[in-house]
């Protein structure tokens, strides 16, 4: 393999005992996994054995579900990823954090700190956080409107980018003899006064190895795609069919070009929930075992909330009601809403069947098959203009990640799609084939070729 | 040594190249130390070799000083301590975080996460953050008044304590057969509506090994002492004389008793900046070397800001002006202001001499001497009602901590004042001889003897 071959990017989306809602009930699963560092260290090292580009943690600042239904709560992602930074060497570390419920100064500082500590491996999955539950944990009575959340997110990014650039790379002089530690002319306080934020001063941490964390985004609504085209360097997306994925891919690349950016500088990673078996029948049996462990009354409860229906509206063995609200009226996870409704209509699913399909990946593509079949699907999407890589979401953890790395990764390597080793240490952004961003305040003539902290 | 002997508590206060402002100019010092994880790992392991109770990082959400003057910026403490958690086994990890510029939900979550990841070794140095610079990084035009900052801090603590107790210790049931993961009756959403905060929902992380982080405080103003008496379990303080330290110690213990708490449950740790030499003359020479590296014009600049004087007011070889503002009018670091003014008046110091004295410890006691002399001072304060332990602030790092651990610690051990080994793993709170706090929502009759996460 040479650097000229287009390479597949793999991200491991880690979630306690796995992405299938019933995974915690399997005999092999540790129901305390979500608060055990060793569980995550094991997963991170497995992903590194599989030469993944990165790993990723979702998050929201609220207690998601009823405790009765499934594992709830999680270690805060930036904290957990910092611990994983010291247990790994190469893999990127992508944390979800909300622009609606953080201050730019605090969050920019934390990501810069993680980027320094990890040697340039930090990534930020930028979310605007749907739901009234989160709003009520931060002094608001109601969820901010979808459009307002995105307007705030855009201003948040502008402020954060100013903060990350507020130290030029060569601001530290370290002249002991003269007693001059730094060059104040290389510090650029944002002096930002905007609609949502006022931030005067420079960040209190030097510019990090990557300049700033890899910017990742996962919203697929109109607002979400516009935001991604402007800021995102990698996009996670839920797509059920090759056709839909191709359309999304093409659309996002065009929007990115229209925003004045190189479309190669945004990587599209659909989610896939692989359920593996050494034969197709074994894979289907593994899938069935998970479905048999679903508590369907819980599934109805969650589906009603996603569709913004009153409790006890849905019947398990009937299709979805015909008169659902239009996507426009949804203030939460708009694109997920549409995907779920379209999936149910397209495949004429009953509520029970729909819950079974969603139980695995919450709208992401669940694919049960042999390692060859999973590799085939990945290769098809990758070579047919639907993906630059994949967000791998094992149904059960750690076993599902073990199986993927032991059985699918070797096939992808044999086909020349995936690196066989990491090689020298690089930053996460280099791993994704993206350039280190220039500092917006540095004059081109004085820009240092060797950033101080790399 | 038995458990019945009163034992000295030692905290290592880590600060880039050391607490002396000129430390970075020494040939041995690494001027990039403040952003190098390996530097802090080395310090943490040295402190652990010295069987310290804890280590500690100061912080403020603003760029402190002019870069020209001395190392500026720092890794965010909670992030750095999480990385250190994985590089150490026993030592407590105390992070500074501001109640004025954080949300209770986010901060409570981060501390709970660090407490889980570290196996119960998290501590929180609660600060209200003086200064307009910080305020302007968080949307405010002016610094909130001192009293208002403390009122907000008290409400912040009340909310955080509710959040940390929002999961009872036995909320996780993990009944795979029944498909019931947790017991929703053991979840207690704060439903807090107050002056500064509204926080409805339960925390999204289970109760941590310590219940919540060790609560530490370092403000010595009237507001600060009242706050400490109500909430703090350990207090860092700057005291220049045995008499002052005894008075502070007695006062704080009385206030704690008056607040209805056991005065044994608040540990008082004055700061000391040891400058060691194998002879007294060598120690003085080491101190002189540091003083010779002070840039006095920088010192004047900082002193004028502390004293809230206009620039170019102070003359280097004259005493402080007679007509300084009263402490009442100071909205920033009130107690530090008074300590500095009293030090200058008591010892009839010129501005130059005062800067020399402050350069070492910013108001903390600098003590130059042999290891025996430093151990004597520590023993005297410890046995004469002035301290439960010490906040050790080496003038130069890492060498000053090495010297303390190699030469002072063995003397303290020989005298039976300090543990010779850690013994079994314990929480930070147990290390300080404090009980694990009960959950405010758990009925005594149903309280579990074995918390789920310990």
Automatic annotation (TrEMBL), chains A, B:
Q: Domain of life of the organism in this record?
A: Bacteria
Question: What's the family?
Answer: Belongs to the NtaA/SnaA/DszA monooxygenase family.
Q: What is the lineage of its organism?
A: Bacteria, Bacillati, Actinomycetota, Actinomycetes, Kitasatosporales
Instruction: Write the protein's name.
Output: LLM class flavin-dependent oxidoreductase
Q: Write out the GO MF terms.
A: oxidoreductase activity
Polar residues composition bias: residue spans = 439-454
Question: Which residues are in the Luciferase-like domain?
Answer: 33-386
* Region (Disordered), start-end ranges: 432-454
> Which EC number applies?
1.-.-.-
Among Pfam families, the record links this protein to: Bac_luciferase
Q: Which UniProt keywords apply?
A: Flavoprotein, FMN, Monooxygenase, Oxidoreductase
NCBIfam families, per database record: FMN_nitrolo
């Amino acid at each position: 393999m040479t650097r000229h071959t287009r390479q597949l990017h793999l991200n491991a989306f880690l979630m306690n005992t796995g992405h299938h809602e019933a995974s915690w009930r399997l005999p092999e699963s540790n129901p305390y996994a979500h608060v055990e560092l060793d569980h995550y260290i094991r997963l991170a090292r497995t992903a590194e054995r599989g030469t993944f580009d990165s790993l990723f943690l979702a998050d929201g600042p609220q207690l998601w579900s009823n405790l009765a239904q499934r594992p709830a709560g999680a270690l805060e992602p930036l904290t957990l990823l910092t611990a994983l930074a010291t247990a790994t060497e190469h893999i990127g570390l992508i944390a979800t954090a909300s622009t609606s419920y953080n201050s730019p100064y605090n969050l920019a500082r934390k990501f810069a700190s993680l980027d320094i500590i990890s040697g340039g491996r930090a990534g930020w999955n930028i979310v605007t956080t749907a739901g009234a539950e989160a709003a009520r944990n931060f002094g608001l009575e109601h969820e901010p409107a979808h459009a307002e959340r995105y307007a705030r997110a855009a201003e948040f990014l502008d402020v954060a980018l100013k903060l990350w650039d507020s130290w030029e790379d060569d601001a530290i002089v370290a002249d002991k003899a003269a007693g001059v530690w730094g060059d104040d002319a290389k510090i650029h306080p944002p002096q930002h006064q905007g609609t949502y934020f006022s931030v005067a001063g420079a960040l209190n941490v030097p510019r990090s190895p990557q300049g700033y964390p890899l910017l990742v985004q996962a919203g697929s609504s109109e607002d979400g795609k516009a935001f991604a085209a402007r800021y995102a360097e990698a996009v996670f997306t839920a797509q059920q069919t090759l056709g839909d994925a191709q359309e999304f891919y093409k659309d996002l690349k065009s929007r990115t070009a229209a925003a004045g950016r190189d479309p190669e500088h945004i990587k599209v990673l659909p989610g896939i929930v692989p359920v593996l078996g050494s034969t197709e029948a074994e894979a289907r049996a593994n899938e069935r075992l998970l479905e048999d462990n679903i508590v369907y009354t819980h599934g109805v409860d969650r589906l009603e909330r996603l569709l913004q229906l009153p409790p006890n509206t849905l019947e398990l063995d009937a299709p979805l009601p015909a008169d659902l609200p239009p996507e426009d009226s949804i203030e939460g996870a708009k694109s997920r809403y549409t995907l779920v409704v379209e999936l149910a209509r397209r495949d004429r699913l009953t509520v029970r069947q729909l819950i079974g399909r969603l139980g695995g990946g919450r709208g992401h593509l669940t694919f049960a098959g042999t390692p060859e079949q999973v590799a085939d699907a990945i290769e098809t999407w990758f070579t047919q203009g639907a993906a630059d890589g994949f967000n791998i979401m094992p149904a059960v953890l750690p076993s599902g990640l073990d199986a993927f790395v032991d059985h699918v990764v070797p096939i992808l390597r044999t086909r020349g799609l995936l690196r066989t080793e990491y090689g020298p240490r690089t930053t996460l952004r280099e791993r994704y084939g993206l350039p280190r961003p220039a500092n917006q305040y540095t004059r081109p003539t004085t820009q240092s070729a060797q950033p101080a902290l790399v």
